[in-house]
Specification:
There is one protein chain. This protein has 323 residues and is mostly helical. Helices cover 79% and strands 2% of the residues. The chain has a single domain (3-155, 166-322), classed as NCX, central ion-binding region (A middle domain of Talin 1). It is built from eleven helices and four strands; from the N terminus they run H-H-H-H-E-H-E-H-H-H-H-E-H-E-H. It is globular.
Length: 323
């Protein structure tokens, strides 16, 4: 494939993510305003589900091909990126801490830790069975049930701009923003795959090692939707959308996606020691996320630097082990 075409696809994909990201952030905020929902909840549901579509597609495809362990590896590496770089970069780029003063967010921190640890525990017998898949899916819907069990957890008084004075106009605006959000997420997911495809082609042409392609290109490409959404939300100083996005993109793949994949094809894990480094780093990252989030009710720049350092350590260790 011509380098010119690959570079063009890469640039166009980046531009699509830039403009579509604006649509999604503004769309989610306006949809939340109309529904009277908290931005955290809507971001969790929208970005958690739509942002996990690449994980789901890869998981279903790998399960149907008889290699479902590929999905497990992708989910683990993706969650590491979400809990380190995706969380840290917005703080470092904007210079503002992420505030975690909501009781809903503080409880969700524990659900995030549970969603991270549960599949790792179920894998201790070197097998993720269909029964394990049911447990993972049950965990996801347990959180959803808890979230919506009390109205104050997901609603807040909106109508700051009198949107409900004209119900017909407000509903049309709602539909426009909903459509813009869905279209924006769809474009971001497609563009992210365009980045992966073009970057893989460029790396192959430059004879880059496969391990580096997997870590730097595929990982970043799959994390592009939540990373850009988090950065834009942080720039708009919306902490709840930042945290809803990150927690959704950790919990959904680790429970719902892995649960569906293991129902289609149980996941045998021969030599789970291959995941030992990633498992340890993921556990540390999630525990630090919980501690940082509950300490002074905010995640600071210094803590963000620690998370970036943790990701760098993960990269170095994986490269050393793979050589």
């Amino acid at each position: 494939m011509s380098f010119i075409i690959l570079i063009a696809v890469f640039i166009v994909s980046c531009l699509i993510i830039y403009f579509a990201g604006e649509w999604v952030v503004d769309g989610v905020m306006n949809v939340a305003r109309y529904l009277g929902w908290r931005e955290f909840v809507l971001s969790f549901l929208v970005m958690g589900l739509f942002g996990s579509l690449p994980n789901l597609f890869v998981g279903i495809s790998s399960a149907l091909q008889g290699i479902p362990e590929l999905s497990l590896g992708e989910v683990i590496s993706g969650n590491i990126i979400d809990l380190t770089l995706v969380l840290a970069l917005p703080i470092l780029l904007t210079g503002r801490a992420i505030v975690t003063d909501s009781r809903t967010i503080n409880t969700t921190l524990f659900f995030t830790l549970g969603a991270t640890v549960l599949p790792l525990m179920l894998c201790l017998d070197n097998f993720l069975s269909r029964a394990d898949g049911v447990i993972l899916i049950f965990f996801y819907f347990t959180y959803i049930f808890w979230l919506f069990a009390k109205k104050e957890r997901f609603t807040r008084p909106y109508d700051e701009e009198g949107l409900h004075n004209d119900l017909g106009k407000a509903f049309i605006i709602f539909l426009e923003n909903l459509g813009k959000t869905i279209l924006g997420i769809f474009l971001i997911v497609i563009a992210a795959q365009g980045i992966v495809w073009s970057a893989e082609g460029l790396a192959e042409g430059l004879s880059m090692p496969v391990i580096l392609v997997g870590i730097f290109i595929v990982g970043f490409g799959n994390a592009a939707p939540e990373l850009y959404f988090t950065i834009k939300s942080s720039q708009k100083q919306n902490n709840y959308m930042v945290l809803g996005n990150i927690m959704g993109c950790v919990i959904v793949p680790a429970t719902l996606v892995l649960g569906i994949v293991s129902l289609i094809h149980p996941i045998p894990i021969s030599g789970f020691s291959n995941f030992a480094i990633a498992r340890a780093i993921l556990l540390i990252a999630c525990i630090m996320f919980l501690i940082f989030g509950r300490t002074d009710k905010k995640i600071t720049k210094g803590e963000a630097l620690f998370l970036v350092s943790l990701y760098v350590i993960f990269i170095i260790m994986e490269i050393i082990v793979s050589l």
